[in-house]
Amino acid sequence: MTAPVFVVEGGGLRVGTVTLDGPEGRHAVSVRRLRVGEEIVLTDGAGTGAYGTVAAVEGKDRLDVAVTEVRTEPEPTPRITVVQALPKGDRGELAVETMTETGVDAIVPWQAARCITQWKGERGAKALAKWRATAREAGKQSRRLRFPEVTDALSARQVAALLADADFAAVLHEEGGEPLATAPLPSEGRIVLVVGPEGGVSPQELTAFAEAGAWPYRLGRSVLRTSTAGTAATALLLGRTGRWS
Asked: What highest taxon heads this organism's lineage (predicted)?
């Protein structure tokens, strides 16, 4: 079994003794019950990992790690971003969790015209915080050193601008004329996918996205839910671009 991953905020990852405390230290000591000599990985969530073993445990929320190696992963390419329309209930966190575990690089919440869920005011801020916390925890669980960025929620016009700036952009749509499995993909740069809401992408949004260079593509014969389509598409692209090789 691979070593568990914990986050160290504010840098400080180096060869030598590094202290893990606070909520992460409590989780390591009181929940995971790590003991002296066990392997552990510390990360800043931005691509740097410190590898070592537990050197000492103090109380219920503090341990010292003897770090023997620090390495930084290069940013993956092509970079995969999924624009995720806001699903109902907690299915948004499910989408973030599974896309993070699969390997997505960035997630953009999108307030689509047909979204039932609305992010407004304090409720929207809390929902965004949940998405970001979910990405962080899923990144740790899946042993990632570089966690996906979860941006602020965007409007359709802002999404169109993001699509226009991509090296390849697509809208996942059951009526897409071409399969994503055969779409021409760049070997580097930025790939942006749009996942619509339960009610579908509106004709006006499809037109705006097409004008930005993002055409409809289908995944397969079945129609996936908005909370699973991004994960399936990310897995397909990771395989096709060689990032899973």
From this structure: Bacteria
Question: 40 and 52 in contact (C-beta within 8 Å)?
Answer: yes
pTM comes to: 0.94
Nearest one of 219, 225, 175 to 196, comparing CA atoms: 225
* CB neighbour class for 215 (10 Å; exposed up to 12, middle 13-18, buried from 19): middle
Distance CA(121)–CA(116), nearest Å, equals 16
Give the phi and the psi of residue 103 in degrees, each rounded to 5. 130, 15
Please state, in angstroms and rounded to a whole number, the distance separating the CA atoms of residues 118 and 128: 12
Residues 76-98 pLDDT 10s:
999 999 999 999 889 999 999 99
At residue 17, the 3 state secondary structure works out as: strand
Q: pLDDT tens for residues 169-227?
A: 999 998 878 999 999 999 999 999 999 998 899 999 999 999 999 999 999 888 889 99
Rounded alpha-carbon distances, angstroms, from residue 186 to 167, 169, 189, 244 = 7, 10, 7, 15
